[in-house]
Amino acid sequence: MLDHERGCFIAATGRDADELHFRNVMVGVPTVDEVTAYDAVILGGSGDFSVVERDQPFFQPMTEMLRGLVDTSFPTFGCCFGFQLLVDAMGGVVVRDPQNSELGSHDVELTDEGAGDPLFGQLPRTFIAQMGHFDRATVLPEGIPNLASSQLCGFQALRVPGAPIWATQFHPELDEQGNRDRCVAYIKEFGQIEGYEALPSPDALTILPRFLELAVSS
Question: What is the pLDDT of residues 75-86, one digit of tens each?
Answer without folding.
Answer: 999 999 999 999
